[in-house]
Specification:
The chain is about 50% helix and about 10% strand. The chain is mainly α. A hairpin with a 2-residue loop joins strand 2 (about 120) and strand 3 (about 125). Helix 2 (about 60-70) crosses helix 3 and helix 3 (about 75-110) runs antiparallel to helix 4.
């Protein structure tokens, strides 16, 4: 069974969460696509780097310096922080998977110790020989899976899928009748899921932070990295003010 942590009081939230949907012009859309794709590639590279390090020093300073050279310090800090969170979440999920496999193995072994149709205390054996044989095969599979998970945990080898495992597996089922996505639509969803356009807030900065700002007149602005010399945001440090206004709902 999982252990229950001691109760504690959560501090009241001190920030604001802003949700909005932008109605973009073609130029603005090209800007966001270029920035999201560029930062997404950096995020993927940094996450792979973090996963290779395992339980050793996460080398966040080195990783942030490498990402800063291709973006900015604010973008790089958010990317490295997100990679650390994803790696930690993946390690926790792997540990929880190990606990689930151990419980399943223990349950099957307990029932296999009882003869078919028999009962020992509160434990019932399997009803038929066929069911017992199927559970024996299931036990072998679970034990093999448990050995692999324990080996990965011992070396902290975590697997994280940017874009989501569910969408990745859906790629192999596009020809099924119940799947209503075409290959082009799936590719567009996959690319959008792997984009990265996030910057951590700063309480000392007006309108958000120095990277993503929400103006009181509901204009949205961003300081993009150096992405494409053909766009108006070619030099890192310029502020790109998107054309449309946005109606945002704040949740504290």
């Amino acid at each position: 069974m999982r252990s229950i942590a001691d109760p504690f009081v959560v501090r009241l939230p001190a920030g604001a969460r802003v949700r909005t949907r932008l109605r973009l012009t073609p130029v603005d859309e090209a800007v966001l696509r270029a920035v999201g794709a560029h930062l997404g590639r950096l995020a993927g590279h940094d996450l792979a780097w973090r996963c290779r390090l395992g339980r050793s020093d996460d080398q966040r300073t080195v990783r942030k310096h490498a990402a800063t050279s291709q973006s900015s310090s604010r973008w790089a800090g958010t990317i490295t922080r997100t990679s650390n969170d994803q790696w930690q979440r993946g390690l926790t999920n792997l540990a929880n998977h190990q606990l689930g496999l151990r419980r399943a193995v223990r349950s099957i072994r307990t029932r296999l110790a009882v003869p078919v149709g028999g009962k020992q205390g509160r434990v019932h054996g399997y009803a038929t020989q066929a069911e017992r044989y199927a559970k024996q095969r299931r036990l072998q599979h679970l034990e093999g899976e448990l050995a692999k998970v324990e080996d990965r945990l011992s070396s902290a080898r975590v697997s994280v899928c940017r874009g989501g495992h569910r969408l990745a597996k859906l790629r192999h089922r596009l020809d099924h009748v119940d799947v209503k996505l075409t290959e082009a639509e799936w590719q567009a969803c996959w690319q959008a899921r792997r984009w990265f356009l996030t910057a951590d807030g700063d309480a000392t900065k007006r309108w958000g932070n120095e990277t993503i700002r929400v103006h009181p007149e509901q204009q949205w602005g961003s300081t993009p990295p150096s992405v494409d010399r053909g766009l108006a945001i070619s030099r890192s440090g310029e502020v790109c003010h998107l054309t449309p206004q946005c109606n945002s709902s704040r949740r504290r």
